[in-house]
Design a protein that fits this description.
alpha+beta; 4 helices; 4 strands
Length: 228
Amino acid sequence: MLYSGAGPGGPGACADSWITGPKTMSMPTPIQDRSRRRGWRGLWRSRDGGALIEFAFAAPLLVVSVAAVIEFGMIMFMNSLMEGAIREASRFGITGYAPSGVSREQEIANMILEGAVGLVKPADITISTLVYSNFSSIGQPEPFVDGNGNGSFDPGETYNDINGNGQWDADMGASGVGGPGDVVVYTATVDWSLVTRLLDPVFGDTGKMTLKASTVVRNEPYNVPAGP
């Protein structure tokens, strides 16, 4: 039943206000539709925040590049320090001089560690010295009789124990700093810890890189008495 006259809305309210039913949505007008399209195009063309997005793409490459410059700079610096330290130690070693209470080997090791200016822990550096009778013997194997002709040393074959350690060696160099006139190879090997860990995929998960410096010298004839 429909009622006319004053309704809940007060005098003059339409009788339709008593009728409830599904609400209908009005379609956007052409003006509203054009405004909406202009809004999307404006959002697409807007450059607000563009610098931040570009930096987000460039930042990882920038950080890795800076880390690489730092790492390779420190590696070159450390390698230069070790080369200088090994040269200074070898110059001392050729003289045959040994300070009171310290062996030549220990003094040479101390000089190399001092040359690293505290950037390397003693546990991370290995120092070796091999002695040869002449330059042509460096890195050569001890002579042996190749009984089966296979070109390599086999257990039981006769060999000349040049370095006197009781076994055949692929390198005939003897440990020590040598005597007068001997040829000595000085080698320092460093397990260098990377400053950052960003380049671990390049150098390995240990975060360390092996650096090596070496030099070859002939000892002075320091025990030869002076002539009259």
